[in-house]
Automatic annotation (TrEMBL):
Top-level taxonomy: Eukaryota, Fungi, Dikarya, Ascomycota, Pezizomycotina
Any one GO molecular-function label of the UniProt entry: catalytic activity
Protein name per the record: Bacterial alpha-L-rhamnosidase domain-containing protein
Occurrences of domain Alpha-L-rhamnosidase six-hairpin glycosidase (ranges): 207-423
InterPro entries: 6-hairpin_glycosidase_sf, 6hp_glycosidase-like_sf, Bac_rhamnosid6H
Signal peptide residue numbers: none
Pfam families, sorted: Bac_rhamnosid6H (PF17389)
Length: 615
């Protein structure tokens, strides 16, 4: 149990004004003069609240508790989490029938997965005064860790904003790693309030998509979340269990669900392919062949299903049309073809790493050839020479989506340094607003998920300055927002700076938006793997690369590190005038590709090293 007194500010607002009332030894009295108090935990938290109280008079009373992630939604009702467009979350209520002391602990099923602010008030007017004391919070996330600060990775630069962005992604991943029996109950079974005691996956910890909601495994989110978890917390057990639940629910027709139980919808071919990519990321970071072996036959079946989506034009035509939060859903959408290209590439690489798996070598060769054939079809059917970007579909000459164009760079459909890559990077920049890119396929909205992939893409296109500026604009805006959590990364927001993400596209109200969503954590991995440039390229880091981006204006120093089963990896660079000083420290049994500005790349043995070069 974490004593709240040690870490929260208490504010009261009887006149609509926030007035600091923090005193670690205080007990707070609810009465006619102070009808409510608000506890500000200072960051996103989640779990079970307990508190002690003393009722100072006769008659029944009722203590109410309301939760919210955003400061501007503090009220006597909680923000939205249960998914119902008809029934609100409301508040928790504890009836008090006698004078004297008492204790209240939230029911386990009422666990609140994500909040920063807790409002306490008396539900009945004229009730006897109530002393509140000894408020406690039992944190529910990262359940298998005895020390929640035991990160396996780190990042530091001279830019404090980038440091905060990196750690906000890492902390978000912690809040999204939860006990397997604390998922959100499907909305059809409750009429008001919320309930978080659904089974979401095997094991003691599972990586979900959001702290407050949806609290299910949404596998597409892992395209950005897994690399960021690896370089920061190092928690791969939550990833493994999330992937496992997908393959445990592979349907007889070889379709994977887009989300885990209790939802288990099978209507997204793009999320199906994200699962393929998720397997690659997990195995790359862990070398967990013992996990891979039993799911390999299912993996082949699932990839065969995706391969069967290629039509007579040579591109993908999806059957399951649902996708991330985009609003436009064409069947021949370019992002689906790019995702299959990546799935084939990564599947072939897995086959190369583990040739002893059944048919691995022959499948790797086959998938590599198919990926190249698909890439040629993507260029022939979907590239628009006039715009310098990929169309939504062969027949749609008006929509040039952020997702497919970002993925085309991030997933190497376009080669770094090519004219096409340069044009796509420039096109993506043309959609920027001061707080992030407006999504052409979801107008009026900014998606930190797809923008995370855009950041990868700008790095791959040779434009690290664009990637860093995008982090500062979008993630920097959110983390400094007075109504944000100041500690996590948000699901999305509007181009006008409000929280009404997708409010006109099915979300029930503005408070439904999640302020701690793992799909938005892309900058965490990009800062380590792309800016500092330290990245594993073979399972567990047996091979790695160090390609620092030393030319970003105003960023002359950065370092990062992470851990695999082979040991600790770290690297740094420092620009001093026209010189760059670099250092690296990797396990001795490994080898890495070192590529420095203006120099030819070369293989080096693992161990400690340093070098100074002139620019």
């Amino acid at each position: 149990m974490v004593p709240v007194m040690d870490q929260v500010n208490v504010v009261s607002f009887p006149d609509g004004e926030f007035v600091s009332a923090y005193d670690e030894n205080a007990k707070w009295t609810l009465n006619s003069e102070t009808p409510e108090i608000v506890l500000d935990f200072g960051c996103e938290v989640g779990g079970i609240i307990s508190l002690d109280y003393d009722q100072l008079g006769e008659g029944p009373s009722a203590l109410a508790l309301a939760f919210t992630e955003a400061k501007n939604y503090i009220s006597h009702e909680s923000d939205s989490s249960n998914g119902s467009p008809e029934y609100p979350d409301l508040h928790l209520k504890h009836k008090i029938n006698s004078t004297g002391p008492g204790t209240y602990t939230m029911p386990d099923a009422s666990l609140r997965g994500g909040f920063r602010y807790l409002t306490l008030y008396q539900e009945e007017d004229g009730a006897a005064p109530l002393h509140i004391r000894n408020v406690r919070l039992e944190i529910s996330f990262q359940p298998t860790w005895p020390d929640m600060r035991a990160y396996q990775g780190y990042f530091y630069s001279e830019d404090e904003l980038l440091n905060r962005i990196w750690y906000s992604g890492a902390y978000t991943l912690q809040t999204n790693s939860v006990p397997s029996n604390t998922g959100r109950v499907d909305v059809g079974t409750i009429e008001e309030g919320w309930k978080n005691d659904a089974f979401v996956g095997p094991g003691g910890t599972v990586l979900l998509d959001g702290a407050k909601r949806d609290r299910w495994v949404w596998i597409g989110d892992m395209g950005t979340a897994v690399p960021s978890a690896f370089v920061s917390t190092g928690d791969m057990a939550s990833t493994r269990n999330a992937l496992q639940v997908m393959f445990d629910n592979l349907r007889d027709d070889d379709v994977l669900p887009k989300a885990g139980p209790p939802y288990l919808a099978y209507n997204s071919d793009t999320y199906h392919m994200w699962t393929m990519i998720g397997v690659y990321n997990y195995v790359l970071y862990t070398d967990d062949i013992d996990w891979l072996k039993p799911i390999w036959p299912k993996y082949i079946r699932a990839l065969n299903y995706a391969r069967g989506l290629v039509n007579d034009k040579g591109i993908v035509s999806v059957k399951g049309t649902a996708d991330w939060a985009r609003w436009l859903y064409s069947s021949e959408r370019s992002s689906a073809s790019v995702l299959l290209y990546r799935a084939l590439q990564t599947g072939a690489e897995i086959g190369t790493w583990y040739p002893d798996l059944p048919d691995a070598s022959s499948l790797a060769e086959q998938w590599t050839k198919e990926a190249e054939t698909l890439r040629e079809a993507i260029m022939a059917e979907l590239w628009d020479e006039t715009t310098g970007a990929f169309r939504e579909s062969p027949d749609d000459v008006s929509l040039f989506p952020q997702d497919a164009n970002s993925m085309s760079l991030a997933f190497d459909v376009l080669e770094r340094g090519s004219e096409e890559a340069e044009r796509v990077s420039s096109y993506l920049e043309s959609n920027w607003t001061p707080i992030g890119p407006e999504v052409p396929e979801l107008l009026g909205n900014i998606s930190p998920f797809i923008t995370s992939i855009e950041i990868f893409g700008h790095f791959r296109a040779g434009h690290p300055e664009r990637a860093v500026q995008l982090m500062r604009d979008a993630w920097g805006w959110y983390i400094n927002h007075p109504n944000g959590t100041g500690s996590t990364v948000a699901e999305g927001y509007r181009v006008n700076g409000t929280w009404g993400y997708r409010i006109d596209r099915g979300y029930k109200d503005e408070t439904y938006m999640s302020h701690a969503h793992c799909w938005s954590s892309g900058p965490t991995s990009s800062l380590t793997e792309r800016l500092v440039g330290l990245q594993v390229t073979a399972p567990a880091g047996e091979e790695w690369q160090f390609i620092p981006e030393t030319g970003v204006h105003g960023l002359g120093e950065a370092e990062a590190g992470f851990t695999t089963k082979l040991g600790k990896f770290s690297a740094s660079f420092k620009v001093d005038g026209n010189r760059v000083h670099i250092k690296w420290d990797t396990p001795e049994e490994t080898r890495g590709w070192l590529s420095l500005p203006g120099k030819s790349g070369r293989w080096i043995d693992g161990g400690k090293g340093s070098k100074t070069i002139c620019l």
